[in-house]
Write a structure and sequence with these properties.
This protein is an alpha+beta fold and about 625 residues long. It is about 25% helix and about 20% strand. The protein has helices at about 1-10, 15-30, 35-45, 45-50, 55-60, 85-90, 265, 335-345, 360-365, 380-400, 415-420, 440-450, 460-465, 485-505, 595-600, 610, and strands at about 115-120, 125, 135, 145-150, 155, 160-170, 185-190, 205-210, 210-215, 220, 230-240, 245-250, 255-260, 270-280, 280-285, 300, 310-315, 325-330, 355, 405, 430-435, 480. Strands 2, 3, 6, 11, 12, 13, 15 and 16 form an eight-stranded mixed beta sheet that branches. Strands 1-4-14-7-8-9-10 form a seven-stranded antiparallel beta sheet, with no helix packed on it. A five-stranded parallel beta sheet has the order 19-20-18-21-22, sandwiched between helices. Keywords: Methylation, Nucleus, Phosphoprotein.
């Protein structure tokens, strides 16, 4: 702004010159949008600063469109049928290539010990340094998600038990009051290659805090409800004839047998201790404690105390990053990417692929095994946006973990592919192109629309078609595989799509349309974002106008703490890898940032998960 004023005072035709300079600058910025960290910091500002916003977070999200953005804001149409691919499409063009993150250093644990397995758990389940307790991320949309974890070892014989205590129901005041059962734990046993969604697949047996048991998504009443500070005992008996029995106790009182299966059906596969939590912190006693919470029934042995030959080790993760693989799906919406990803993961169980996609996020938001889309009472588009934000954070976390991944997004923009692959430097990086015939694409799109509702607006699909490029092997892609139409046929059809998209012209709501000041980044007032954030801001990097302070200048709070958002989720006392960097005095599992003096005085007492949860990821 100061430079603009100076130049304007020096040249007679300064207004014309300035206009050309600003046009050039704006075009450059549209080509090089804000960084991932800046956008993620912006997305999470209200949650990062607990200055009285916690109780009103949900009401802010559902505020009427016309009430947001100030006098000059533009109303954008509320479309209930916009789904995850639409918001993914909006994110595709936003961010510059991030720097590769530092890899999390796994502490070496004695392989003979039975602990929570940091490889066989969800990315958003945080495990303690000693590997005997953990809790899920609860920031924003993560509070809707289940998070699961398995133990390192399973069993195939004997009478074996373990205990689980719910240490805390983490406050999640940002959830709507209509959210059913915001705090639940499901506990039980599962085979090694089942998903982390306990009780929702075959040979996955779970008893939940709502007083329900489930196996293969079949729910029925069992036992009692349980919650914070309750201790659930889990018992498995391989010595009752041809059947295997699984029973439970609550606070030392037997609840009886919940599940039976046959040894023939198990076919020699081990069953592993398994927990699935929603907004609860849990702790295990596998037998490592000097005293149990409650004495086990006669004849049962804690799994930790079994002989080594009687414990079956679960799948171990890759030893080095070079052994890890990430498969990037590439294709238009509804072309079949998710179908291919799920099938490939099922056909290669030894790889234990983590599918990173909004579909996978929505699967972790199920209620009683049912997806939310048909029975969700709130604003569906807001939930989808939160799911997309969760996915972005999980991708950042994933790049720090030695695992195998399938990135299930459209990835039709060449710049987006480079940006998304760069954090996974050192992985085996491959692209899987799903390019069906035009007839098949139309048929699949119609089927998805009938099953899930309108997914992506036509103008967004046309914009993707106009900008779609086929991936080639390069410095960030070691291999490219075409799963349906092969390269030459796909390229011929793509030329038609490119032409179709270009003829359709730009979408109706390009980023620079109808904003105060004409172009992005010049401040001067607030505006309405597609993702319903309602604060004011200026332009880029502290060039504030009347409406805000800009990305780096903070939102009416001075400068923003410009730190890497995802490198901090592991800075918790007692929690794995580099959590030891954080002093543990007077805190629970969460580490708080510096706060204003008045707030510091109010928070001298030990702090709960919710008081600190905003730094989790």
């Amino acid at each position: 702004f100061n430079i603009t004023c100076t130049v304007g005072g020096l040249f007679p035709d300064s207004y014309y010159i300035l206009f050309l300079l600003e046009m050039k600058a704006e075009i450059k910025k549209e080509e090089e949008p804000e960084t991932v960290d800046q956008q993620q910091q912006e997305d999470n500002h209200n949650s990062e600063h607990p200055s009285g916003r916690e109780d009103t977070a949900h009401s802010d999200h559902v505020k009427a469109e016309g009430d947001k953005g100030g006098h000059y804001s533009r109303k954008r149409p509320y479309e209930e049928n916009r789904s995850y691919s639409y918001y993914e499409h909006r994110e595709e063009k936003r961010s510059r290539t991030p720097q590769p993150p530092a890899e999390d250093e796994e502490e070496n644990i004695d392989d003979s010990l039975v602990t929570i397995d940091t490889y066989n758990c969800d990315l958003h389940f945080k495990v303690s340094r000693d590997r005997y307790s953990g809790y899920p991320l609860t920031l924003e949309g993560f509070a809707y998600l289940w998070a699961g974890a398995r133990a390192t070892h399973g069993v195939i014989q004997g009478r074996v038990c373990y205990e689980m205590k719910i240490n805390e129901e983490i406050p999640v005041k940002h959830l709507p009051s209509s959210e059913p059962d915001p705090h639940v734990v499901r506990i039980g046993w599962s085979i090694n290659h089942s998903s982390t969604q306990l009780g929702e697949e075959a040979f996955s047996f779970g008893y939940g805090g709502t007083g329900k048991k489930s196996e293969n998504c079949k729910f029925s009443d069992f036992g009692e409800k349980f919650g914070e500070n309750d201790v659930i005992g889990c018992y498995i008996d391989f010595e009752s004839g041809e059947e295997v029995e699984m029973g439970y106790s609550k606070n030392g009182v037997s609840l009886g047998v919940a599940f039976r299966t046959t040894k023939e059906a198990l076919a020699g596969r081990a069953l592993f201790p398994h927990v699935l939590v929603k907004n609860c912190a849990v702790e295990f006693n596998f037998g490592q404690k000097s005293q149990p919470y409650f004495p086990p029934p006669e004849g049962y042995t804690y799994i930790h105390n079994l002989e080594m030959e009687d414990k079956i080790r679960g799948t171990k993760g890759p030893a080095t990053k070079s052994e890890c693989e990430i498969l990037m799906m590439v294709g238009l919406p509804a072309c079949g990417k998710t179908t291919w990803a799920v099938k490939h993961a099922e056909e290669n169980p030894e790889k234990k692929y983590n599918i990173l996609g909004t579909n996978a996020i929505m699967d972790k938001m199920k209620v009683m095994g049912l997806r939310r889309q048909r029975n969700y009472a709130g604003r569906w588009d807001i939930l989808i946006q939160q799911a997309t934000q969760c996915l972005n954070r999980l991708i950042e976390i994933a790049a720090r973990k030695r695992r195998n991944y399938i990135l299930d997004q459209t990835n039709v923009y060449g710049s987006a592919r480079r940006r998304k692959m760069r954090p996974f430097e050192g992985f085996q990086r491959k692209a899987i192109v799903i390019f069906p015939t035009d007839e098949d694409l139309k048929e699949r799109t119609l089927k998805q629309t009938n099953e899930q509702g309108k997914d992506v607006p036509d103008h967004a699909v046309l914009e993707m078609k106009a900008n779609f490029t086929l991936p080639e092997t390069c410095d960030f892609l070691e291999a490219v595989t075409f799963a349906e139409l092969q390269h030459d046929n796909a390229e011929n059809l793509l030329k038609q799509y490119n032409e179709e998209g270009r003829k359709a012209g730009p979408p109706p709501d390009k980023r620079y349309d109808n904003r105060q000041g004409g172009f992005r980044g010049r401040g001067g007032g607030s505006y309405q974002r597609y993702d319903n954030r309602d604060y004011s801001r200026g332009g880029y990097q502290s060039r504030s106008g009347d409406g805000g302070s800009g990305y780096r200048g903070g939102y009416n709070q001075g400068s923003y703490n410009n730190q890497n958002y995802y490198s901090n989720y592991n800075q918790y006392p007692g929690y794995s890898q580099s959590y030891s960097q954080t002093p543990a005095s007077g805190q629970t599992y969460n580490h708080h940032q510096q706060q204003p003096a008045q707030q510091q005085q109010q928070q001298q007492q030990p702090q709960s998960y919710n008081q600190q949860y905003q730094q989790v990821c």
